[in-house]
Amino acid sequence: MLLPDYDFMSDTTEDTSTRFVTFITPNLKRFDLAIMTTNRFYGKKLITDLQSGRTAIVGQDDLDEEGYLEFAYKLTEEEAADLRQFLEFVVGTVNFTD
């Protein structure tokens, strides 16, 4: 089957590493996360909340941005604070290589 006249901007395949983490915060909020490490996104992580299906590209700069986790994962401020505290240990520095 041939694809219609799509104009591909990119089409690459790469090996990635995925970490699956389940934890309950002190406020009794459960998180089930898939944290993908890839060479794309300047070293940021691709993090999926498996309960909601929401995915975001997350780096330290995103954790520092007010409201980012609340918006990306539809969380309350309290839930986002708990998630941010965990992600501080997961997300490394951003590497601009391009």
- What's the average pLDDT? 89
- Which range best describes the helical content: under 10%, 10-25%, 25-40%, 40-55%, 55-70% or over 70%? 10-25%
Number of strands: 4
Let me know the largest β-sheet: 4 strands, antiparallel
How big is the Rg?
Answer: 16 Å
The global form is elongated
Strand content: 25-35%
Distance between the termini: 35 Å
The arrangement of helices and strands along the chain is EEEEHHH
Which stretches of 5+ consecutive residues score pLDDT under 50?
A: none
Helix count equals 3
Which secondary-structure class do the elements indicate?
alpha+beta
Strand order of the largest sheet: 1-2-3-4
Q: Which descriptors would you attach to this protein?
A:
single chain; 98 residues; alpha+beta; 3 helices; 22% helix
